[in-house]
Amino acid sequence: MSRIMVVAEKEVRQLIKSRNVMLSALLFVGVFGIFTVPAVLSGMGDTGAMMDTLGFYLVLTLGVFMGYLFTAQVFLREKQSGVIETLLCTPLSLRELWFGKVLGVTIPGAILAYFSAILIMVTGSAFTGQTLVPSLPVLFHIIVVIPAFIAATSGLIGFTQFILGMRENQILNFVIIFGIIFLTTFIRELTGPEFSVTWTVVAAAFGLALLLILVTAWLTRFLSRERIITTLSE
Asked: Sign of torsion, CA 60 66 67 68?
């Protein structure tokens, strides 16, 4: 576990030093967190229910996108620069390396997701003139489930970036992340405005995230150092 934490700490430090990436992430969160809320709340009567919907869907979408943005830096960047060859020579197993990188993406991704949730609450409260706070199921979703989804999506994308070549990665990663975002948007439209976030819904979302993490962690057994090295030139 200590070796996984060493990798995670390294990745977090590298992401913090990547000013362009962090600035892009903050800008993305700020724009959506501030300008989306008034547009949504202005067309709804029950602002409390709408705040739950924003906390469930919008914060999830922003968190998943943060994971996508950071994963490109943590996994693909090291293949492009050749740093991964040095890491493969360390005593770390490929699963430990994968877990450490996923954790290194999840920590800053979750922090920015929390920031977006606070920004949405502050913007919504300022716009409506009343204090808007998500319900307990939505708060649990924001605090626990969304980091799990960030880990799940970044883990899956990172796994594909390990085993695929450069050109294949660019196509498949785009499909994965925007497929997930499209799926959440489609489900939101399908459920309609009467949809309410309950403990059952949150538990189902949490179970899905954990399942995705476990499946991808199991798939890491098929990784090999030779395969990763050969993809550097593809």
From this structure: positive
Q: Could you tell me the pTM of the whole model?
A: 0.88
Start-to-end C-alpha separation, the chain: 32
Got the DSSP string for 41-96? Answer: HTT-S-HHHHHHHIIIIIHHHHHHHHHHHHHIIIIIHHHHHTHHHHHTTSS--HHH
- What is the number of structural domains in the chain? 1
Residue 196 one-letter amino acid: S
Domain extent for 80:
2-231
* pLDDT tens by residue, 129-184: 788 888 999 999 999 999 999 999 999 988 988 887 666 666 666 676 677 666 66
Give the whole-angstrom CA distance, residue 106 versus residue 100. Answer: 10
